[in-house]
Structure formats: C-alpha cells, structure tokens
Amino acid sequence: MRSLPRVRRRFVLLVAVVLAVVCGGAVTLAARRGPDGARRAHAAHTVTYDHYSLKLDGNRVYLWSAEFHYWRLPSPDLWRDVLEKFKAAGYNATSIYFDWAYHSPKQGVYDFTGVRDIERLLTIAQQVGIYVIARPGPYINAETDSGGFPGWLTTQKGRARSSAPDYTQAYREWLRHVDPIIAKHQYTDGTGPVILYQIENEYGTHTDKAYMKDLKKQVRADGIDVPFTHNHCCGASKWATGGGSVDLPGQDSYPQKFNCSTPDRWNGLATLPRFRDDAPIFTPEFQGGAYDPWGGPGYDKCRTLTGPDFEKVFYKHNLATGVTMQNFYMTYGGTSWGWLADPSHVYTSYDYGSAIKEDRELTPKYDEAKRLGYLTQAVAPLTKTDPVSAGKPTNADVTLTARANPDDGTRFSVLRHRDATSTTTETTHVPIDLTAGRQGGAAVSYPSVPQEPGTKIKLAGRDAKLLVAGYHLGSQQLRYSTSEIMTHGRIGDRDVALLYGRRGEDGETVLHYDAAPSVTVLSGKVRHVWNAGRGDLRLNYTHQGLARVLVTPRGGVPVLLLLATDQEAARFWRQDTAAGPVLVRGPELLRSAAVQGPALALTGDTSAVTGLEVFAATSVRTVTWNGAPVRTTGDDTLTGRLAGPRRVTVPALTGWKVRAESPEARPGFDDHGWTVANRTTTNNPTRPATAPVLYADDYGFHYGDVWYRAHFTAKGGETGVTLTAGTGKAGVYSVWLNGKFLGSSGDGRHTFAFPARAAAKGRDNVLSVLVENMGHNEDFDATDTHKEPRGLTGAKLRGSAAPLTWRIQGGEGGEELPDPARGPFNTGGLYGERNGWHLPGGADAGWTATTLPRRDTRPGVSWYKTTFDLNLPKDQDVPLGVTFTDDHSRHYRALLFVNGWQLGRYVNDVGPQRSFPIPPGILRANGRNTLAIAVWNEDGKTGGLGQVALRQYADLATSLRVADVTTPR
Ligand code: IPT
C-alpha cells in the first residue's frame, strides 16, 4: 500500500463537481459544513467504487482488512503493535467498532481520553499506514455488553434501533460526540486513514427506514464524507437500494459457525452475494475465528475450526467468486476486560481463535493470511475480474473456477475439492487456456498442466490453490505457475518473485521469452527446459525449503525466482520504502523498513537468534535492526544475524494476604447511605414479578455485582423467601438472613428456606442478597433484548405477607464514576471494590498473611492480594498472564485486578478460561505490580483460592516500546 497522503486540502468546487459527475454512485463530492456553517466542497482525495472494486483517488485497491477493537486492549501503545502486525501481514485496512458504552457512563457524559483516546488510535493507524473502516454503530453487537449500548440506555422507554424519540435523542448524542473525531481523520480530506463508515450493524429484521435515514443524515451533518457501508447478516432489509440504503452494502459470513467443540467439522462453502451491480462484492465480516462461551471448549479449538486450511479454502473461494473487499472478524480479538463481555457468548478472553492471539502472538493462521494478503496487494489485476470458463480438471473430484481481468487477460484459477469439506488427497491435471487473453498478442493454451511427465497438481486434504496465469509479472510474462504467488516486485535491477507450494509437492512455472534466456539455479533442485517453438521456459521442481533461480533474458530485466514451501514463504516480509519494495527473510516480524541513502533501517521482532537476508535496492549497503548496525555480507542479497531476546524469568507469587468482606450480610451493617429501592414503575418491557421494581439498571447500577438488603418485621410464620434474579448466563446470587448464609443459586427463581427460629418474630430482620450481573444481552434482532432485567426481579416471603423494604448498592457512585480512567466496566458493587481494595497502594490493616492454595468455608467474598516486581528488558516484549490452578469441583469465582484494572473473571467450576493475559502498559514491566483477587465462595464449603501464578507466554526482542498506562492509585 502506498503511504497515506499528507495533509492537503483543496476546496476546488469545480473539480469536485466534475468528479461527482464522472464517478456516479459514489460519494466523491464531499460537501459538508465548515465551522462557519457554510457548505464546502473539496476533492483532495476520493473514495469511490464500481462493479469491480473500491478505488482510492481513482486507483483500484483490493481491500484486505483486519478487525480490531481498541476497547479490548486497554494499552494504547499496543494498538500500534497490533496495527503494525496487521500491516506487516499485508492487510491494507483495519475495521474498527467504536463501543458507545465504553465512552459513556451516563447520558450526556463522554470520555475520549486515556485508554479511550480514539484520536490517538486514528493517528497511530495513519502513522502505521493502514486504512480504517469506522464502525461506530450506534449498535455494534460484537459479543459485548448490550451490543455496545450504554447501561443507561437499558432504561429507555422507546425501542432501541427505532425512531423512538428517547432513543433518537440518545444516538444523536453519541454520534455528535464520536463523529467529529472520526471526521478529522478522513482520507477524503487528506487528513487520515478513514476510508469507509458503517451505518448500524446487521440490521435486517424489525428495521425502521426513518431511523436509517436519520443516521445517515446525522453522520453527514457531523462531517463524515466517506462512503457509507453496511453489513448484512439476515432478514429482509439489505440496505442496498431504497430508503435508508447505504453506498456500499456487504454480506457478513461465518460459514463455520461458532461451535468450537467440533473443530474438524466443516459446513461447506457459502458464496457471497453481489447486492448491486454498481458496487463490488464486499464482506464486511468474514469469519476469522469464533467466539467461545462460558464452559466452552476454549479458543485453541476455535483456532483449529478456522485454521490455515479453512483460510485457504474459504478465502480463496471468495477470491474465486470475485470478492474484492474482505474484512476478517476477528484478526486480533483481545480481552473483554472488566464487565465488557456479553453474558451469552463469551467470557473474559475475546481471543476468538484469530490469527493474532490475545497476548499478541502470531499464529500459523497469521502466516496463511499473510501469504494471501501479500498476493492481494501485489497482483493488481485481481481488483478487476470477470468469471470465465475454467475447463475441466482430469480428476472429477476437484473443481476449477476461473476469472480473468478483462483489460490484460490475467487469469486466476482456484482449484479445490468438489466437496470443499473433503479430506481426501487428490491429484489432477488442469487446462490453462490463455487464448482469450492479451498476452503480447500470443494466444496460447495448455491443455494439460503440469506438462512435465510424472508430475501433477495435488490437493492433500483440505486445501485450495490460487493459480495465476497470463500475467505480467513485473517485466516478465508468466504463462502460468502451479505454485502460488505470494508477492513480487522490482528490487534493484531485477524482478524478485516469491512463489510457494506445500512441502513435497510438484511445482511447474512457465515464463515466456522471445529468445532463450540464461538460467542459473542458485540453490535447490530445479529442472528447466526451453521450448523454442513456444518461447516457453519451463521450470520444474519439488517444493522443498527454498530454491532460487535467476533467469536473465537477452536484453531484458532478470528475475530472481524464490520457490518456497509454505513455511519458508512465511519467513519473508515485505515493506515498501521510498526506494521501492524490500524483502526481508528471517525474523519473527518485520515492523518497518526505511531507506535513507545507502542505509536501510529495519525494525521488528525476533524470538531467537535468527539469520537475516535482505533483498533491497542495489544502493542499499548497510542495514540496521532496531537501531543497531547489522554486520552483513554478500553483494547481491545482504545476509547477517539478528540477536534474540535475553531469557527472562518471572517471579513466583508469594507474600499473599487475605481479608474477608461482605459485611453487608451482617444484620447490623449500616445501609442507610444506600439507594432506597421503592420504584413502582419501570420503562422495562419486562414487568417485575413483585413490587417494588428491583432492577439494578433502574437505580443506575449497570455493571458487576449488586447488593440488596431488605428489612422486614417477621410475623412468625416465615419459612423462607422466593427470589428471582436475572444474572445472565453462568451468573450466581447468594442470600443471607440476619447474617446466616442461606445458599446460592444461578440465574432464575429459587426458594431459600429459613432455618428454624432464624427470623425473629416482631423484630427487624434483614435479608442480604448479592447478585452478579454477567452483563446485558445483545440486541441482535432489534427487539430490546438488552433490556432483560439484571439484579433481583422478584422477591416474596414464604408463609408471611410481611412487606419487604429494600435498599440497593452497586458500583460506587453508580453512573457518576469515581474512577473515570478505568471507566464504567472496571468495578461493580463489592465492598472491597467500593472501598478501593482492588487498587494499588492500599493500607495493610485488616489483612492477614496467608499462602496459596487456601481452603475457606466462609461464604461470601474474601480478597487476596500480593505485589511483585518486574524488571523486564526495555527492548523485549514479554507477554505475561495470571494462571489459576485448582480442582474444578470447587464452587467459587474470582475477579482478577492487576494494578486496579479488572482483567479477568475466573469461574472455577465453569471455565474454560484459566489463564488471563495482562497487557503490558497495565502491567508495569519495570516496577511494582499489585495483584488483588476478589473470591466469591458460593457454597460456604468449597471456597478459598487455588494456586495463582504468573505465566510467561512468549519472549521477543522488539522495537516496540510500551509506556505505562496512566493509572490513578
Ligand atoms: C456478527 C456481528 O456483526 C458481530 O458484531 C459479531 O457479533 C459477529 O457476528 C460474531 O462474532 S453477528 C453473526 C450472527 C453473523
């Protein structure tokens, strides 16, 4: 991708008008109001599209995009890490949801600072050189609480995602806050990376055209002038034509679905639709992984379900069917830290089994995405293709689909099993017909490829191959190759082309020349024959390691062919510099390359001592790696060695202290400062089972645990209490009478029997109830499912009509956040949370020394804390996490706080997550860290806390630098 343009504003009305006329359907004439209210038009840069592809400044681009959620990574310097990793894999864009709730704890209150600083996010994207698809909702789904709606929105009367007046006022408020920040970073203005803006999300059923129209109107009024997109899932409204329609409609697709417990079960191909003839085929979300619920099989299984074989077959099928805009959801998932997770689909980790793990490690899925991504960015004719007839492979169990670029004839054939889910090994020959092409006027056809006797094309198990033919590969004419193209470019005085195939499989590459070129096999075993009649140089080889062939045509530009296995190909990195493309072989990651005179400055990561090989312009004589000179040899490519990281050891966690809380369970606890819960009405579509209304949200407590206390004067016949609580999936609530523990229940109704004589007749008795709120549901169908009540929804004494008078206490301050830096999702209403026990620097009074594991039969909540010091090398990225080990039959759950940030919700008897990555920045790499764990003993028998340890996931030497996140104490 070319680097993004610098600030360049031209308000040339005439040019804009002409462009608007020429470019038809797309939004080229960007007309918006300036601060003076005057309508202005500017055409500094354009984002347009046609039947085939997106165009930037009139140039076709293949959109190869990676989904990222900054709010799932609360450490801004790591945003750069992730975006650099995307860019390095060949993604030219990132698609970003903006989570309304993350920024708004209360109606009218918005925060875009610290870990919420989206201005910084968009600036980083610009610096990294990656385009942005902005998706601010207002509804986003995304397996997050309320699908991104703020907690305060759950109490509105009007249906969300409709034209209801209260909802309208609310979403306009959000857009008015978020849009101007996005608007400042638009490609069209020459000021930023934002090229597209999504309206709403998978809005297909229970839709409201007026709402869609108003969203568009509001967003344009807010200064957004890039084209509007939409992601269709299901339902009638595709927003492709008619009222409320968007510029660029697209289809989301999750062909493997989300059951990671059967990771080898494939569901077969789905072909993406073209919604409008004047717009390209676009998939705003194509499956990049899968979510995993409480008690699920874990994300490694999701990574298998959507592994490299899946990427090969499904992503190439998209290429084969003419898709030129693909965004992969997720490419880096991150962490639903605090109470960000929606209860039904996910736990804390949002790793998603994606190409980049939650702890930011690259996986084999990343390698495959990179092999394909590089192709989409290097082989330009792919941006404009029509279907053509492919001919029949010799093996009837395989299918060949072909497309060709109508201008230059480049032909793309995708070969796969007829049944895409098949695991058999097939071999075949295929026809490659270039007679329709315009290759130098030569109409040629190869009825049976590969031509070399005894060789064949193989599909070993689940696999697909994208074969390019009739292609101007730099200055060469590629007739065809049965190897796949990863990338190529003019580097120095020759072309360099990197081709790859599966280890041990045959490869055949045919290049056309007017006269016999000279061929030098530099390494590996490569046979070559010259067919003078056809002017074809045919190379045959078995993919094994890395073979190199230099072909020098008479009087033409030489080409260095690099013929690699998949694995060898993945070790190559490409970066485009002012002096042309640079290929680098060896390191774990190449983040950047810059050429200045004879010096090439490279930055990146290594996980061990690594060989380095640089393919760069002939002018490049010296190389630095992360700022330090590399001693290189060779005068063709430059080779050298890169150091790996130093070994680090993480400290054992010792010095634990414990402190019991839940004084709220005791009868004498002073609750007079709590909110009286006496509402008799609610806007909630769910009517309460009993009066008063006890819904936590109605009292401004939207996240985490909530305490209730009810006083009643016993009449004497009380035998128990029937409570109904809405916790969301896998949640729990515990109940006490006058300090005596009655037990716990999961979501729903439960009767708690009173022990004999526990309720004192004629006297004040106190029920204490601690209810967990696992989060609000999503609102997928626009039916207000996010409003399903949380907290207590009904309460009735058994054997008595004595009235209950209630008070409620959730997170300190409710919607008035005591700790805006950590934000609305960080804490709930536990005593320790309300009193800052989770924060670093608290006093030690009341805490006693202990060791782990520890057994505890006291019901309710106890806290454990310790500190540890880290002194990690500044130039190393050492992803660390906290791991819990215990017998899973013990019924307790825990909140994990690191330096005051809640980064894990551990449920010992549900799982599956037992290891919680802590992002650097939150974790102090050089200094003291405070760990605090609030443990809720659910049965008063099997509580306590198991083994808790730091775990090191990886160790990398890196150029990445991470500043500590500003954290109030
Ligand atoms: C689709 C949503 O748009 C996205 O926000 C996320 O929830 C994703 O799926 C799943 O992870 S909804 C799906 C039913 C296609």
Automatic annotation (TrEMBL):
Its EC number is 3.2.1.23. This is beta-galactosidase. It catalyses: Hydrolysis of terminal non-reducing beta-D-galactose residues in beta-D-galactosides. InterPro entries: Betagal_dom2 (IPR018954), Betagal_dom2_sf (IPR037110), BetaGal_dom3 (IPR025972), BetaGal_dom3_sf (IPR036833), BetaGal_jelly_roll_dom (IPR025300), Galactose-bd-like_sf (IPR008979), GH (IPR017853), Gly_Hdrlase_35_cat (IPR031330). The keyword Hydrolase applies. Pfam families: BetaGal_ABD2, BetaGal_dom2, BetaGal_dom3, Glyco_hydro_35. SMART domains: BetaGal_dom2. Keywords: Glycoprotein, Glycosidase, Hydrolase, Signal. It comes from the Bacteria. SUPFAM superfamilies: (Trans)glycosidases, Beta-galactosidase LacA, domain 3, Galactose-binding domain-like, Glycosyl hydrolase domain. Residues 381-572 form the Beta-galactosidase domain. The lineage of its organism: Bacteria, Bacillati, Actinomycetota, Actinomycetes, Streptosporangiales. PANTHER family: BETA-GALACTOSIDASE RELATED. Belongs to the glycosyl hydrolase 35 family. The keyword Repeat does not apply. It comes from Actinoallomurus spadix.
